[in-house]
Amino acid sequence: MVAIKYALLTFSLLGAAAAAPASEVDYVSALVPGEGLPSPKELGLTNVFLQKRKVCRYTDVCQRTDAIACFNYLLGLNERSCSTGARPTQFCRMGGCSWIGQAENAPQAASYFRDVAHGGNVVINGCRIGSICAGYNYAGGNGNLRVTLAGN
Predict the structure, then answer these.
(1) N or C: which end of the chain has fewer CB within 10 A?
(2) Whole-prediction pTM
(3) What span, in angstroms and rounded, lies between the C-alpha atoms of 74 and 38?
């Protein structure tokens, strides 16, 4: 009997918590950097940037092997600068897989190709089902340069 009451109490509390409106978190103010490291505010980071994460898509997918070939190519370009605007720019195509860059929340975005490669690699490893992958992430160090991996 006690177990049933405990279960009912737990479910009612969980329901109440789920029904409560989510509060906005000010990540720029709440994040505590390690000793000697600059604050997000000192780096000019925003809440939007701190909350960005990959998005997986399972339509218009890439073969992982094709996506990896583009990753290695873009990584090999290392610190060569790449830039894009609001219109999508194709950075690489291998087989049926395209790596596409696009500025988001800014008219232009630029980054090193190695950072574009690392952003796309998150999709390769984090948005995979067997031998396919697709989705988008942001170039390492630049939350305004969206890197999309998609089949064509």
Answers:
(1) N
(2) 0.73
(3) 30
pLDDT exceeds cutoff 60 at 45: yes
What is the length of the chain? 152
Taking only the tens place, the pLDDT of each residue in 94-143 is: 999 999 999 998 999 999 999 999 999 999 999 999 999 999 999 988 88
What's the CA gap between 100 and 9, in Å, rounded?
50
Give the strands of the sheet with 62-63, arranged side by side: 62-63, 132-133, 128-129
Averaged over 43-60, what is the pLDDT? 84
Measure the N-to-C terminal CA separation of the chain; round to a whole number of Å.
Answer: 59
Alpha helices for 20-112 (secondary structure H): 27-30, 47-51, 64-76
Query: What sections of 31-97 are H helices per DSSP?
Result: 47-51, 64-76
Q: Where are the domains of the chain?
A: 1-51, 53-151
What distance in Å separates the CA atoms of residue 72 and residue 91, rounded to the nearest whole number? Answer: 12
